[in-house]
Amino acid sequence: MNVPEIVGAGLIVIGVGLGIGRIGGSAMEAIARQPEATNKIQTAMLIAAALIEGIGFAALVMK
Fold first, then answer.
1. Cα 59 to chain center, whole Å?
2. Which has the least CB within 10 A, 9, 28, 33, 52?
3. For residue 60, is pLDDT > 80?
4. Based on the number of CB atoms within 10 Å of its own CB, is 21 exposed (0-12), middle (13-18) or buried (19 or more)?
5. DSSP 63
6. pLDDT digit string (tens) for 27-47?
7. How far is 59 from 57, CA to CA, in rounded Å?
């Protein structure tokens, strides 16, 4: 691996981590505001996190 590939992989991992972190934080705020909607919020959060992670894996494989 050369340096640009390593930097690119690092940026992908950082981006995925930030995206999933923001989703988790936003979901916790939403649950705090509406505890009765916990199941719907958690489901949407898990689907969004899985999609972001999948895009991250695809980007790592394609580089």
1. 13
2. 33
3. yes
4. exposed
5. -
6. 999 999 999 999 999 999 999
7. 5
